[in-house]
From TrEMBL:
Pfam family of the protein (one): Acyl-CoA_dh_N
Location of the Acyl-CoA dehydrogenase/oxidase C-terminal domain: 242-386
Domain Acyl-CoA dehydrogenase/oxidase N-terminal: 9-127
Organism (species): Candidatus Litorirhabdus singularis
Stretches assigned to the Acyl-CoA oxidase/dehydrogenase middle domain: 132-229
Membrane-spanning ranges: none
Protein name according to UniProt: Acyl-CoA dehydrogenase
Keywords noted in UniProt: FAD, Flavoprotein, Oxidoreductase
């Protein structure tokens, strides 16, 4: 049988090492950051303190090849490691596999020239710089990049960029941005109108307006103005007119990477729910003995089970060079909603304590809400799933390739 849902001993050993490192080393330090109300200076101090320890233990960049200093894990192995790392809020940062740098590393690895890799990818891998991805704009729908208004016009040997971006996550403190701008507005195919550029954040005209305050506070989701920002011709990442393709290549695995991390959060919330239900006594019995609470557990367990299977299957398809758009779209929708629902149920079981900031649940709930918007809103993934399902049926007379192309 080719179907095997277990990891080989080497991968299982790595997963266990990450789990122990997060529990014994990272979690206690993260608790101090939380006790300091997530003060940015304290957060940065913790990252700088713990990153060398992660490197010493060989727990550095699980997503990158060994020749770039990473662990060289396959996508399925990465799923196991990412889920463990995300059980501690700061975990992915300590291992240098946090968004958006993780996705930008992949993008530079696959699309960058040798010069771009040395100038921008290597410092990212070494952990000496950070980056951001600048695509979304406030004036147009973020889910439709063909509508982008930021322009890049050729002037001699330079490109001149003008535009308005927001939710450029990670911009504050980043040394460069990957910017998607319109270079060929008259291209017959809308998807061929945009191009990706590498733009140093210290370029004249790069104006970081603000860190946008969200319902969970400020988390480095920045608004940026590009005012006659000049970059050389060789600042193009990939090919001219290839910005849409680059974005889709980047966002597919990036969506799955989010799902991998969300699984760790879902599992943490469910464990908190079970623990609370088995220790809280009310109205003549433990909460765990009440059918309404048991249904919360059962629903959460079923949804988490499906989420894990989806993520593993998507990772398997990517690992084996198979088509994965439909599967990742469905996984992104399901896992994001499972995160929201399970955290909400855990909060309900904790009652007033869960609503307070005395447990992590309030913060987890605030963070969970963006998951249903980022990298494609729920409704966009619903639309895309239905479209690809119809394509599958119309091409083959069967829906099988639209529901995972599984052998049953």
């Amino acid at each position: 049988m080719a179907i095997d849902f277990s990891f080989n001993p080497e991968v299982e050993a790595v997963r266990h090492r990450v789990k122990i490192f997060m529990k014994d080393v990272v979690a206690p330090r993260w608790a101090k950051v939380e006790a300091a109300d997530n003060d940015r200076k304290e957060l940065i101090s913790a990252i700088l303190e713990l990153r060398p320890q992660a490197q010493e233990q060989g727990l550095w960049m699980p997503h990158m090849p060994e020749e770039w200093g990473g662990m060289g894990l396959t996508p399925t192995a990465l799923a196991a490691v990412s889920a463990e790392a995300a059980k501690v809020g700061i975990g992915p940062y300590i291992m240098n596999c946090q968004a958006p740098d993780e996705g930008n590393m992949h993008t530079l690895l696959h699309f960058g020239t040798e010069e771009q890799k040395e100038n921008y990818l290597r410092p990212l891998c070494e952990g000496t710089t950070r980056s951001c991805f600048s695509m979304t704009e406030p004036e147009v729908a973020g889910s439709d990049p063909t509508l982008l208004q930021t322009r890049a016009e050729l002037d001699g040997d330079e490109w001149v960029i003008n535009g308005h971006k927001w939710f450029t996550s990670g911009a504050r403190g980043a040394s460069f941005a990957i910017v998607i701008a319109k270079t060929d507005p008259d291209a017959e195919i809308p998807q061929a109108r945009n191009t990706a550029f590498i733009v140093p954040t210290d370029s004249p005209g790069f104006e970081l307006v603000r860190d946008i305050e969200t319902m969970s506070g400020g988390h480095n989701h920045c608004e940026i103005l590009y005012k006659d920002v000049r970059v050389p011709k060789n600042a193009i990442l990939g090919e001219r007119g290839g910005g849409h393709k680059l974005g889709q290549v980047r966002l597919g695995p990036a969506r799955l990477a989010h799902c991998m991390r969300w699984i760790g959060q879902i599992e943490t919330a469910l464990e908190m729910l079970v623990e609370r239900a088995q220790t809280r006594y009310a109205h003549g019995s433990l909460l765990s003995e009440k059918q309404g609470i048991q249904w919360m557990m059962a629903d959460s367990a079923r949804e988490l089970y499906a989420a894990k299977l989806m993520v593993l299957h998507c990772a398997y398809k990517i690992e084996n060079g198979m088509e994965f758009k439909q599967e990742v779209s469905m996984a992104k929708h399901h896992v994001a909603n499972t995160l929201w629902q399970v955290v909400d149920r855990a909060m309900q079981v904790y009652g007033a304590l869960g609503y307070s900031t005395d447990t992590p649940l309030a913060g987890m709930m605030q963070q969970a809400r963006w998951s249903r918007l980022a990298d494609g809103a729920d409704e966009v993934h619903q639309m895309r799933t239905a479209d690809l399902l119809m394509q599958a049926y119309n091409a083959t007379g069967s829906v099988n390739t639209g529901v995972g192309a599984l052998p049953i």
